[in-house]
Structure formats: structure tokens, C-alpha cells
Design a protein that fits this description.
With 286 residues, the protein is α/β, with parallel strands linked by helices. The chain folds into two domains: 162 residues, Rossmann fold; 103 residues, SIR2/SIRT2 'Small Domain' (2-Layer Sandwich), CATH 3.30.1600. It contains ten helices and eleven strands. A six-stranded parallel sheet has the order 3-2-1-9-10-11, with helices on both faces. The chain has a three-stranded antiparallel sheet with strand order 5-4-8. Strands 6-7 form a two-stranded antiparallel sheet. Helix 8 links the parallel strand 9 and strand 10. The two termini are 30 Å apart.
Length: 286
């Protein structure tokens, strides 16, 4: 790994304003699986789409039943080597901004500063009145409403979007809850497939990229346009794009540098090289 690490170290040292974009591969070390394999193909069925969720009571019942089983594993997940290394690089001023496509909140839990491009599973939003509430509180409400509900078979691996694959379950027997304020429809405060990222959030991230002089992508195949757009924008503006991700990505033709080894190991090694002591960046910048 040493030659590749030297290249990435030089990449960061030569670009004082690096923006990082992270994806699901950063959180796999915390027990949260990613969506796609090394070839970019889906590992499991595509998650529920926004249009289906809002239009179908049966789809919402199925989603919340699966989320009821899957949420505890997501809630208990802890930052891994990748999150800790990125937080360390931020504290030492080697990285300017961080944008994450993940919805698990683990960058913040590690002490990093991140813009949650796709929202955060720890919050629930009412689609009628806009009220925000805590996902843990909703879990308690779901448990009280469904004291006897249990699937016959559960895949214990949490799904990437915070639910669980249930082999056999009577979804019709599960009873979701509504907004406590207005009785409206509740949805996790995340961007579903088929749903647009809020424009102000995209504008905020684009402003970060405009102020940067390089982009580092970690743990993402960028197969979804909401993330790929930043690599494309960086390339079109003449800013180099580096990638740490195993397998094929949508941005391979745009990259100036790529490492396909374990993202946590690479980032931890980079942090060790760049952060030997406090205020390393300030000293390097004079």
C-alpha cells in the first residue's frame, strides 16, 4: 500500500482545500452493509421508492415493520476506523469540508463535521405538518402499538437504509403510528430513492466544492446521480478527483488517482502520516 499512500498523501498536501464525499463503504466496518458489490450492481432488492411510500399504505406498513426490526442495529452502530480517521484529518485541518451520502450519523458521532446529503435516520419527519421527532421515540411508540408482532424469520444483517430483510412476516398485522402533532404521515428524514435532495442542501454542497481545489471520494461507487454530480462538477471545473473505493465506480473516467484497498485501512494510514501531532496543518502552512 505504501506507493499508493504516498500518492494520496501528496494529493492532500498539495491541495490545501480538499472536500471529501463519502458513501456506504465508509460505514460497512460499523456493521451497516452497502448497497452494491464491486461491479456496481445491487446486492439486494432496491429500497422502497418515495412515490410508492407516499401512495401506498401497504408499502408504508411494510417499510415501518422492517424498520422496527432493523433500527436497533443502526442505532447501536459506532464509528469505525474510516470515520475516526476523517474526523482526525478534519481536526488537523487537512480536510476542508465533508459531504456524506450516508444517513447513519456516524461522522458526527466520531467528532467530524459533515453535511448529511441524504438526511439522517435518527430523525422522523411528518409529511403533513413538517414536525421533526426522534427516531428512538418512534421506536418506543411502535413497540407499544405492536407488543405481540414479530416476524417468523429475520435476516439479522441490517439493510443499508435502516430496515431489515424479513424472510417471512405478516406485514398486515403490523400497525404503524402517525404524527403526534397532526396525525399526518411519518417518514424517516432521509431522501428516498426517487426523491430529490432538497435544493438548498445541494447548493450548500456545491458552494463547498466551488471553494475547494480538490475532491476526495471515499467508499462510494457514485452510481447514484446525487453523489456523482459532485465528481462531475469537480472534473468539469478542472479540479482533480481522487477515489478510495473497491471495484468499479461511475466516475472512473474522471479520476486522477484511485486506491481499491480497504477504505478504513487507507484512511487510518493517511491520518497517521499526516497527523503526527497537534496543529500539523497550521505548522505546514506557516
Amino acid at each position: 500500500m505504501s506507493d499508493s499512500l504516498a500518492q494520496f498523501e501528496a494529493f492532500i498536501r498539495s491541495h490545501p482545500r480538499v472536500v471529501v464525499l463519502t458513501g456506504a463503504g465508509v460505514s460497512t466496518g460499523s456493521g451497516i452493509p452497502d448497497y452494491r458489490g464491486h461491479d456496481g450492481a445491487w446486492k439486494r432488492r432496491e429500497p422502497v421508492r418515495y412515490q410508492e411510500f407516499t401512495a401506498s399504505a401497504a408499502a408504508r406498513r411494510r417499510y415501518w415493520a422492517r424498520s422496527y426490526i432493523g433500527w436497533p442495529q443502526v442505532e447501536s452502530a459506532r464509528p469505525n476506523a474510516a470515520h475516526n480517521a476523517l474526523a482526525r484529518l478534519q481536526r488537523q485541518h487537512w480536510l476542508q469540508d465533508l459531504i456524506t451520502q450516508n444517513v447513519d450519523g456516524l461522522h458526527s458521532a466520531a467528532g467530524g463535521r459533515a453535511v448529511d446529503l441524504h438526511g439522517n435516520l435518527a430523525r422522523v419527519v411528518c409529511l403533513d405538518c413538517g414536525d421533526l421527532s426522534d427516531r428512538s421515540h418512534l421506536q418506543a411508540r411502535l413497540e407499544a402499538r405492536n407488543p405481540d408482532w414479530a416476524p417468523e424469520s429475520v435476516d439479522q444483517r441490517a439493510a443499508p437504509d435502516g430496515d431489515a430483510d424479513l424472510a417471512r412476516a405478516d406485514y398486515q398485522a403490523f400497525d404503524p403510528v402517525d404524527c403526534e402533532r397532526c396525525g399526518g404521515m411519518l417518514k424517516p428524514d432521509v431522501v428516498f430513492f426517487g426523491e430529490a435532495v432538497p435544493r438548498p442542501r445541494v447548493a450548500q454542497c456545491m458552494a463547498m466544492l466551488d471553494a475547494a481545489d480538490a475532491l476526495l471520494v471515499a467508499g462510494s461507487s457514485l452510481m447514484v446521480f446525487s453523489g456523482f454530480r459532485f465528481a462531475r462538477a469537480a472534473h468539469q471545473s478542472g479540479k482533480p478527483v481522487a477515489m478510495i473505493n473497491a471495484g468499479r465506480t461511475r466516475a472512473d473516467d474522471l479520476l486522477s488517482l484511485k486506491n481499491q484497498q480497504d477504505v478504513g485501512a487507507v484512511l487510518a494510514a493517511l491520518a497517521d502520516r499526516l497527523c503526527p501531532g497537534p496543529s500539523a496543518r497550521r505548522a505546514a502552512c506557516g
